[in-house]
Recover the amino acids of this structure.
């Protein structure tokens, strides 16, 4: 049932694919942060329709499966637009959009936690909207939510196998093709599973350690009501 | 009884005359219902109670006063089995609370033992701790039905009587969220009373109330104090009230009992400097 | 504008049935596991706590799709052959149940200690305290996060496409293979169907929450 020699032969290609997985994870994560910030700020826009549209888009994307969104992007977009992107890029965009909506909620809670007095003080000091966001609000909103963001990094990591549906050659797809070549199914899938499991566990313990270290002391207070 | 609240909670008569009027038996003739013996309590490094010996006699009303951090709340909580003494023992009706005998040896009490002895003690909390998802009536009948095994009718009968005693029989089907602080505390008192404990702990029960609501609660407690059979441990900052209701005042500071005596002795003739400086803040 | 692909709607209806079936069954499994593991993590006994924590940490760290593959394709090599539906329900239930356990645990822990103390002061037994005082209050708090979790579960059923179980997503793909030019409409409609299903879950939980917190 378990052949160590086979495992040895298997590891190089699995680890190489793991690299693709990590690449997609990080790229998707970074994109989700950018999109999340855009959504979070836009959701607070003073222009009514903008707020409404952003909320609707966020709700829609969050309520529908990533897999279907990937299919839509990969198969439909080339038909509707002149763009035809390679699978890897499509996958990253899919991840970024989907998890951007979750990130926007995370950022929203961080922003809401900044005392209203900070906004009021910025207005009193005649700071521009841009200055207010960049120098006053975001530096206070973001640090407390970093652990939650870290958790979403792990979530994105565990979702990358879904990208195999649009032919991104990541870890699961590689395990699958190895299994189909050698007809040995147990080792590839178990190894893939273990790689995801161990990496996730290590990373989440890392986040918890960081959380413990930085959140005993750091309390952002500038007065004002919340 | 509610009319009293409007007149104000503080009687103008001398406390000692009042006691005689009520024909209250002097506590010294009764046996101790609670005995704290060499109690020490630390929370980690912090020593909160530093060697306390205290007897509470059956039916006696004791007011426990002192600065914050003097361990008075902890003393009350230990009686209610919410905290365990680091060393020392508490006797309820001559039975140890936290220790029991098993096969001839003294061991730490198990839940069954605690449950049996705990039935003699009741407590009213500073923050009321009513059950928000239950109506007032349900709050008061829950324990009689489940612990005392009373039927629904019996439990409700007792509950209504108790709620009438605290002036809230109109609010039977209201929920805690609909009540004022003073009303909530009165429900909490009824809830604890209905279990007929032999000793009741009142842990700073008016400290969380708006000033204008304090009176109604104090009036209810004064009324309850007429019961000769139930001892009361009143942990309080309300000095005038303590003077009126208590048979004995115990002044504690830094985890020890500094001085104790009748209200007249303590308030008119404080012996220790510690008590003198404490009282300066109030009188 | 005629849309010939709409003739295949019955296929989508079949897919919808499978999706709902998997969602319902996996939810039951997840709920049971969440309740058991969540309560077990609060147990006085270290062994029970340990087992529950082990389960939660393990299955929260698994990639669901990889777990699904493993349960369906690799388990047979250990002698356990499961049908597609069973494999899906098991994998999804185990994974989502681990997240649910955390919701149960944190909702119970969030109940103020004063409630426990009042229960002790009234001499209620530990079981009575949990059943009559703590759990009813915790249940109200659990509803919103469980609603969200259920929506996640619904979305994750689309992954059964990978083990060729004929759910909504799979059938949509089948239709698309026959009506290539209608790809955007087909996938667009699929998104809308999932959106409607998610919204139903959301509304149901909102109504439940309102009913359970009338006392607030």
């Amino acid at each position: 049932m378990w052949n160590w020699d086979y495992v040895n032969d298997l590891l190089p290609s699995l680890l190489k694919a793991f690299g693709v997985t990590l690449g997609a994870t990080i790229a998707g994560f970074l994109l989700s942060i950018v999109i999340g910030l855009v959504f979070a700020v836009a959701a607070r826009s003073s222009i009514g329709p903008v707020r409404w549209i952003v909320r609707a888009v966020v709700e829609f994307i969050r309520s529908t499966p990533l897999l279907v969104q990937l299919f839509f992007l990969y198969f439909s977009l080339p038909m509707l637009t002149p763009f035809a992107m390679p699978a890897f890029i499509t996958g990253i965009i899919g991840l970024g959009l989907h998890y951007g909506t979750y990130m926007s909620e995370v950022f929203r809670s961080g922003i809401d936690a900044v005392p209203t007095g900070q906004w009021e003080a910025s207005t009193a000091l005649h700071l521009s909207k841009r200055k207010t966001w960049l120098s006053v609000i975001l530096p206070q909103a973001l640090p407390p939510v970093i652990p939650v963001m870290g958790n979403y990094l792990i979530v994105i990591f565990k979702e990358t196998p879904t990208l195999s549906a649009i032919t991104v050659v990541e870890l699961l797809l590689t395990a699958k093709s190895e299994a189909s070549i050698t007809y040995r199914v147990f080792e590839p899938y178990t190894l893939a599973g273990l790689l995801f499991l161990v990496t996730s566990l290590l990373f989440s313990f890392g986040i918890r350690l960081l959380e413990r270290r930085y959140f005993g002391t750091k309390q952002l207070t500038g007065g004002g009501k919340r | 009884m509610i009319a009293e609240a409007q007149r104000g909670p503080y009687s103008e008569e001398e406390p000692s005359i009042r006691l005689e009027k009520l024909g209250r038996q002097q506590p010294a003739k009764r046996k101790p219902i609670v005995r704290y013996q060499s109690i020490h309590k630390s929370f980690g490094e912090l020593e909160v109670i530093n060697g306390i010996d205290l007897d509470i006699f059956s039916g006696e009303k004791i007011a426990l006063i002192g600065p914050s951090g003097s361990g008075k709340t902890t003393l009350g909580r230990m009686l209610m089995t919410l905290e365990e003494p680091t060393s020392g023992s508490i006797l309820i009706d001559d039975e140890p609370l936290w220790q029991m005998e098993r096969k001839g040896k003294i061991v730490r009490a198990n839940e069954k033992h605690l449950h049996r002895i705990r039935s003699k003690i009741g407590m009213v909390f500073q923050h009321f701790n009513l059950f928000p998802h239950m109506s007032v009536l349900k709050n008061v009948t829950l324990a009689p039905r489940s612990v005392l095994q009373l039927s629904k009718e019996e439990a409700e009968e007792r509950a209504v009587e108790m709620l009438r005693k605290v002036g809230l029989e109109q609010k039977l089907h209201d929920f805690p969220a609909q009540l004022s602080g003073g009303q909530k505390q009165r429900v909490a008192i009824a809830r604890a009373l209905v279990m007929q404990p032999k000793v009741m702990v009142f842990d700073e029960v008016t400290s969380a109330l708006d000033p204008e609501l304090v009176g109604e609660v104090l009036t209810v407690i004064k009324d309850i104090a007429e019961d000769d059979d139930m001892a009361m441990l009143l942990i309080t900052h309300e000095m005038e009230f303590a003077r009126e209701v208590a048979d004995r005042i115990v002044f504690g500071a830094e985890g020890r009992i500094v001085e104790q005596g009748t209200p007249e002795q303590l308030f008119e003739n404080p012996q220790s400097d510690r008590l003198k400086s404490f009282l300066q803040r109030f009188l | 504008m005629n849309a010939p692909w709409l003739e295949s709607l019955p296929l989508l209806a079949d897919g919808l049935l499978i999706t709902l079936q998997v969602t319902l069954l996996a939810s039951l499994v997840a709920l049971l596991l969440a309740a058991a593991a969540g309560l077990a993590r609060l147990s006085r006994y270290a062994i029970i706590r340990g087992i529950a924590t082990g389960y939660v940490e393990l299955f929260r760290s698994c990639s669901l799709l990889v777990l699904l593959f493993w349960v369906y394709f690799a388990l047979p090599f250990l002698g356990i052959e499961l049908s597609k539906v069973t494999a899906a329900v098991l994998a999804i239930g185990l994974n989502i149940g681990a997240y649910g356990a955390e919701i149960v645990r944190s909702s119970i822990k969030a109940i103020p200690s004063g409630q426990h103390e009042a229960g002790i002061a009234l001499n209620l037994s530990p079981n009575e305290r949990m059943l009559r005082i703590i759990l009813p209050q915790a249940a109200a708090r659990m509803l919103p996060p469980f609603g969200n979790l259920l929506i996640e579960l619904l979305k994750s059923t689309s992954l059964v496409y990978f083990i060729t179980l004929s759910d909504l997503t799979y059938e949509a793909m089948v239709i698309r293979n026959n009506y290539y030019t209608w790809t955007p409409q087909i996938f667009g409609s699929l998104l809308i169907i999932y959106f409607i299903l998610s919204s139903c879950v959301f509304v149901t939980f909102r109504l439940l929450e309102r009913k359970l917190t009338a006392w607030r």
Remarks:
- Chains B and A do not touch (no CB pair under 8 Å).
- Chain B has eleven helices and twelve strands.
- The longest helix of chain B spans residues 152-165.
